[in-house]
Amino acid sequence: MNRKDKLQKMHDKRLKRYRTKTKTSNKPPYICKADRAKAEEEKQNLENSEVESDT
User: Fold this and answer.
1) Torsion of CA 2, 17, 25, 30, to 10 degrees
2) How far is residue 14 CA from its own chain's centroid?
3) Coil, strand or helix: which one is 35?
4) 53 to 8, 45, 47: CA distances (angstroms)
5) 3-class DSSP state for residue 55?
6) What pTM does this model have?
7) Which of 5, 17, 19, 55: CA 20 to 30 A from 37?
8) pLDDT (tens digit per residue) in 1-55
């Protein structure tokens, strides 16, 4: 491997490492199916208790 290729490879490696560090994702975190069901159930219970307390 000649000198230019070696320098270019080192530069690309550093650039790749930098990009992965600074990369931010707009994707929401994954919530498992059981946790989603639990949250939905709690939400419904809260809504039901509010309706009952209003009447």
Assistant:
1) 110
2) 24
3) helix
4) 69, 12, 10
5) coil
6) 0.45
7) 55
8) 699 999 999 999 999 999 999 988 888 889 999 999 999 999 999 888 877 776 6
